[in-house]
Design brief:
Strand content: 35-45%
Strand order of the largest sheet: 4-3-2-1-5
CATH class: Mainly Beta
Order of helices and strands: HEEEEEH
CATH architecture: Roll
Number of domains: 1
Structural class: alpha+beta
Largest sheet: 5 strands, antiparallel
Number of helices: 2
Helix content: 25-40%
Length: about 80
């Protein structure tokens, strides 16, 4: 299974990514062979800041769990109920 196939299974999930241009908390929108589309989360107000589209080759690391990602998910969930 390659990275694109695995990411297709994770569409709609929140994660932390490191890529050539920096690192961001994101929600994966779409995973295709030629691009990955993410909504970047602004940590200060837990709103979607912008959409990022990058080539899969530029992706260096993905973190799906852990306390930081769980905190982001919890705060976004709280904001959605307001």
């Amino acid at each position: 299974m390659n990275i694109i196939e695995k990411l297709k299974d994770l569409e709609g999930q929140y994660m932390f990514i490191k890529w050539v241009g920096g690192n961001e908390y994101v929600k994966l929108i779409q995973a295709e062979e030629d691009f990955l589309e993410f909504n970047i989360i602004d940590i200060d107000n837990m709103a979607y800041q912008e959409t990022l589209m990058i080539r899969p080759a530029l992706l260096m690391e993905i973190t799906l769990g852990g306390p930081d990602v769980q905190r982001v998910i919890a705060e976004i969930s709280c904001n959605m109920s307001e």
